[in-house]
TrEMBL record:
PROSITE patterns: ABC_TRANSPORTER_1, ABC_TRANSPORTER_2
The UniProt record lists the keyword Secreted: no
Annotated protein name in UniProt: ABC transporter ATP-binding protein
Sample GO molecular function, one term: ATP binding
Family the entry assigns: Belongs to the ABC transporter superfamily.
């Protein structure tokens, strides 16, 4: 569905001649209807890679290509191939807007009439398992987990083929994190979309992600189907991450 070939993003450093290789020669393929987990410690280049895939940044070198035989979802409203959900809902939501305006923002930005967009709002909330009571609320009246569901509902308004979720569970406690993973898994099936799920917690993706890539210093250390990587890790770095997780 989406192919990333030898993609790099290098930044010039503060000192002369110094460069940061935020992403370095990364290749991976995202298939339709799959969850791809991207794992790595802070500063490993995960968000940079996500921004390159979404098109918020341009690569220094390499290619990112969508399959050209992709069928856009058939809808009577605007659609987009890709949507991004960020780690911190407070930074991506206007605190003075009601939930119904937040989740219909992408539709309205696509010039879809407000009244018609509101008709979809309740259905979008239902998709993320929130009741219609939330429509009139402000973000401050929702918990962290609920706000992340609202952010996912907003992304779903455009019926994306790919949802990029950048550490959307990092600030949540383990029970709420698990509920979010279950929700994403059921959305993958019901919406027929793929998910690029970014996290620093390798221990959360078993039974959730189809493929996993482990990243360090901008380079993919290991990539494969999740079960194989978790049970027969090849790279020393993956082994160290698994060991560290086992002692938590
Ligand atoms: N605009 C920029 N200019 C210079 N360096 C940058 C820029 N953006 C990111 N970097 C550097 O690129 C590297 C990768 O950053 P990135 O944000 O992609 O990491 P990350 O894996 O998402 O980390 P985290 O888990 O903390 O979110 C870091 O060393 C960072 O300092
Ligand atoms: Mg990041």
């Amino acid at each position: 569905m989406l192919r990333v070939e030898e993609v790099s993003k290098h930044y010039a450093g503060s000192e002369k001649g110094q460069i940061t290789k935020a992403v370095d020669k990364v290749s991976l393929t995202l298939h339709p209807n799959e969850i791809f987990a991207l794992i790595g410690e802070s500063g490993s280049g995960k968000s940079t890679l996500a921004e390159l895939i979404v098109g918020l940044q341009q690569p220094t070198s390499g290619l990112i290509t969508w399959a050209n035989n992709l069928q856009a979802p058939k809808k009577d409203r605007p659609t987009s191939r890709i949507q991004l959900v960020f780690q911190n809902p407070d930074r991506s939501m206007n605190p003075y807007w009601r939930v119904k305006d937040i989740i219909t923002e992408p539709l309205r930005l696509s010039r879809y009439p407000k009244k018609k967009a509101y008709v979809h709002a309740e259905e979008l909330l239902a998709k993320v398992k929130l009741s219609a009571d939330f429509l009139e609320r402000y973000p401050a009246e929702c918990s962290g987990g609920q706000k992340q569901r609202i952010a996912v509902a907003r992304a779903l308004s455009m019926s994306p083929l790919l949802l990029v979720a950048d550490e959307i569970t990092s600030a949540l406690d383990p029970t709420i994190e698990d509920e979010m993973l279950q929700l994403l898994l059921s959305l993958k099936r019901s919406e027929g979309m793929s998910i690029l799920y970014i996290t620093h917690r390798l221990e959360t993706i078993s039974g959730f992600a189809d493929q996993v890539a482990v990243m360090k210093d901008g380079v993919i250390q290991e990539l494969g189907d999740t079960r194989t990587v978790l049970t027969e890790p090849k790279s020393e770095y993956t082994k160290a991450l698994l060991n560290a997780a086992a002692y938590k």
